[in-house]
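Supplementary Methods S3. Input chains for the assembly prediction are listed below.
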Amino acid sequence: MIVQFGSARIELVLGDITVQQVDAIANAANAQLAGGGGVDGAIHLAAGPKIMEELQRRYPDGCPTGSAVVTSGGNLPSRYVFHAVGPIWQGGGKKESGLLEAAYQACLSLAEKHTCRTLAFPSISTGVYRYPVDLAAEVALRTVAVKLETSDQLDLVRFVLFDQGTFGSYARVLETMLV
Ligand code: APR
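Predicted structure tokens for the full assembly:
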């Protein structure tokens, strides 16, 4: 599914973010930048040890929730990885939506700073961090769409969704944004 926003596109695909041929991919990291399972584990496995070395050297204090840091792509096809830290879902009353929005915004700012034209996101916070997928999809898609309306830098933002249920949630939300 592809939708035009301003001069750029939002694309939804079912798949694995580690094989995407884009300038940068986002990772769903933790505040310690310590690696983990899920998409974080898959990215470190595919990228090789270089990006963990880079994280430890450049960001020894980690990265606060709602922010992101950049490394090279190691062995990945992409030039950069933006390690974003989404919130842990605690029922919705702990500023989770604002923190999730800020995590996406941090990646979009890094994409501009590093002159990326193409960027891929996983569904940040909806795995181990248990953010409800329908709610997370609204935040993710709205934040990206608002950015694309005013940014000339990005041509494509691709959401790479790992399972059919997550893909369906994002597709439903994106359809509601067309009218
Ligand atoms: N490509 C794309 N998406 C993937 C991949 C992959 N290779 N592997 C998993 N996913 C999906 C999950 O199915 C889920 O939909 O990424 C989404 C986010 O799930 P998590 O990876 O669990 O991320 P999150 O909920 O943000 O939790 C972050 O988990 O792995 C740890 O170190 C990480 O502590 C951090 C926490």
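The radius of gyration is 15 Å. The first helix runs from residue 38 to 47.
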